[in-house]
Description:
The chain is 46% helix and 13% strand. It is of the alpha+beta class. Among the domains are: 1-13 and 39-167, Conserved hypothetical protein from pyrococcus furiosus pfu- 392566-001, ParB domain (Alpha-Beta Complex); 281-324, no CATH class. Strands 1-2-6-4-5-3 form a six-stranded mixed beta sheet. The chain has a three-stranded antiparallel beta sheet with strand order 7-8-9, with no helix packed on it. Mean pLDDT is 79; it is low at 8-57.
Amino acid sequence: MSKQRTLRPNTPGIPLPAFSNAHRHPTVIHDQEAHIPTGDISEEPELANKLVIEELVPEVKAAGRVLRQIPVSLIDANPLAPREVYTPQMISERASDLREQGQHDPIHVIPNPAAIGRYIICDGWTRTQACLQHKVLDSLLAEIHEDLSLQEAAWFGYQQNEGRQQHCDLDRATFYEKMIDQGIPAAEISRKAGVSKSMMTFYRSYSRLPDDVLDIVRQNPQKIGATAAYQLFKLFERVGVRRTVALAMRFVADDQSVSWLTNQVQTLLHPEQKRAKIPSKVQRFSNGQYKQYGTRFELNLEVEDATKRAAFADALEKLISTVGEVAESVQQDEVQSAGDPAE
């Protein structure tokens, strides 16, 4: 039986150090050479490894920025990464761009606090994966942000991706859930991301979907946005997994609109609310209208002329008497009224 699940990153686990959201001023390193201790570094293997790496990948410091050519094998995923959807086509296209045009802009990283000499990506994970998977470049130019926490690095990447319009709603929803897991209130995330509280409710619907439905979402992230996810969640709550999966698959396969999905959900949630029947005949007048719905007739006329009104009422009552069937309760009331003594 399918269960609800919280969206989780598809990245290797990395121990999360303590961090703060407090603003920090950038630290500029003016020293061009790495500090080499006077003692025997063979007794400090981690430090020795770091020094060897620094010799292989020299730094360039300009305008308060620390730039270094870093082997892609030393770059780790961010467990709080703002993006989750990376298709093979997306990575292949980026690999082709790097192969034909080279690297235009540096990627952004922070030192990995759990592994000296390694780095955690802030922004540029698609390029890193392209190099790792397609062997395009052995290293990438990276700007190192030594003063950012893991959480701040994730927000940095989020803002960069938003600026490039590279996020889909599933990416955003997954990122927001990661931040909530870090103890940040949804209202604070809403404010920081510039998302309304009602829209945040829509984004949170993804994490409440069952596995079977979420699998369809992951396969069609651009099609099933936050509004569609919210509608599917409402349906899942009331009618269960099977019917929700069926509707989600039909929504995707037929390339239907979100308004169509919303109408379908409303119909399934409120089957008793049938649409009004369309009249088979309609006659409109300046003073009213006449409609026929199969065996049912409706007349709504306003007759202001007293003489015409009396004649029309008399003719209508005679016509009604030819088809009108008096209810038994009405007949009994009339008999009782006839038998009552006059007052």
